[in-house]
Write a structure and sequence with these properties.
Elements lengths: L5 H9 L3 H12 L3 H14 L7 E7 L5 H14 L4 E6 L9 H8 L1 H5 L3 E4 L7 H17 L4 E7 L4 H6 L4 E7 L11 H6 L2 E5 L6 H16 L12 E3 L9 H17 L1 H28 L1 H15 L5 H10 L3 H6 L2
Helix pairs in contact: 1-2, 1-3, 2-7, 13-14
Bound molecules: guanosine-5'-triphosphate and magnesium ion.
Length: 333
């Protein structure tokens, strides 16, 4: 098959051709060696056009209202002239393949808006795979002129931690419960949040949401924040009321302005880029390790021995690593 021409994709992206943007992301997600070569070229060329956006990560347990929130906020922004791209990181196929369709239908109005681009993630891929490409997909969207990137990730597992390292603002959505607010929430998530938003603060749920807000404010009080100049606030919002998410956006903008003034914005982006490089090195090394034939052969045997308590995990790791040395990396056995 003829190799794909990087220029076709680059020009399409720069001209904001949504069909080509989607094709470019598909290419970037491909694990075929020849696609990788082309996508590497594309990412290199679009890099100078990227970076000029606000990257907002949104997480929360299933059903908290992430997609509805994104549609509400996305419409608010798109209607005021912003160009909004939505990327979804959904590593699990929790809903037997129904989740993409579900999200798409929920974001119907947003998807139809001329100022938006929506990219649901492929279901059933591994976390590393999907999140690894989300960063590149984000750069593509920026080069295509999107000034706001919204990344939805479900707050279970590790996807949210990965996403938090690629965005400028990490928002944790919550809903008010009956006094059991802090249950089911990992402390780690609160620590990486730039703000908490109690969603579904509408109709007869407003009092409960305000109570939850107080409880979370107390909880945050005991955690140290990642920035010395920003204390993550707790706000309430509703994703079903028109402009019900506006106050969250105001918080994002306030944070953005402050971070730019203190220099933390730039610093964080630079740190994130280096961290991302290491992420990819980790992934690459692990992949090479798993592909080493002797390692492949020994893994089932050694794993079994660990399970049976015949050898300690550390001894097992030591043994596996001993099969993998730098010669393996060079010759790629
Ligand atoms: N009353 C009210 N209902 C809401 C609000 N936001 C979302 N919902 C409802 O909550 C349900 C779940 O919303 P989704 O947006 O699909 O939630 P999600 O977090 O994206 O869920 P997953 O993608 O499955 O993780 C839907 O029935 C929404 O209509 C809100 O602000 N107020
Ligand atoms: Mg959703």
């Amino acid at each position: 098959m003829k190799e794909k021409d990087p220029e076709f994709f680059i020009q399409g992206v720069l001209k904001n051709n949504r069909r080509i943007i989607a094709k470019t992301i598909t290419l970037i997600e491909s694990s075929l060696a020849r696609d990788k070569k082309v996508s590497f070229e594309i990412v290199k060329k679009i890099l100078p056009y990227s970076g000029k956006s606000i990257r907002l990560g949104i997480t929360g347990i299933p059903g908290v209202g992430k997609s509805t929130f994104i549609e509400n906020l996305g419409l608010l922004l798109a209607n005021s002239g912003h160009k909004v791209a939505v990327l979804a990181v959904d590593p699990t196929s929790r809903k037997s393949g129904g989740s993409i369709l579900g999200d798409k239908t929920r974001m119907e109005k947003l998807a139809a808006h001329e100022n938006t681009f929506i990219r649901p993630s492929p279901a059933g891929k591994t976390l590393g795979g999907v999140a690894a490409k989300t960063r590149e997909a984000m750069l593509v969207c920026e080069a295509a002129g999107y000034d706001t990137i919204l990344v939805e990730t479900v707050g279970v597992g590790q996807s949210e931690t990965k996403v938090s390292t690629m965005v400028d603002f990490f928002l944790v959505l919550l809903i008010a419960g009956a006094g059991d607010e802090l249950q089911g929430i990992k402390k780690g998530i609160l620590e990486i949040a730039d703000a908490l938003a109690i969603n579904k603060a509408d109709n007869d749920n407003i009092d409960k949401a305000n109570k939850a807000k107080k409880i979370y404010e107390m909880a945050l009080h005991f955690l140290s924040s990642s920035s010395s100049s920003w204390n993550p606030p707790v706000v309430t919002c509703s994703s079903i009321l028109e402009n019900g998410t506006e106050n969250v956006w105001k918080t994002v903008i306030k944070h953005n302005k402050l971070m730019k003034r203190t220099g933390e914005f730039d610093h964080k982006r630079k740190e994130q880029a280096v961290e991302w490089m290491w992420n990819l090195v980790d992934d690459g090394l692990k992949k090479k390790f798993m592909e080493t034939s002797i390692v492949k052969k020994e893994i089932p045997k050694i794993s079994k021995q660990v399970k049976q308590g015949l050898i300690s995990p550390s001894a097992a790791a030591e043994e596996l690593l001993s099969y993998f040395n730098y010669k393996n990396i060079l010759i790629g056995t």
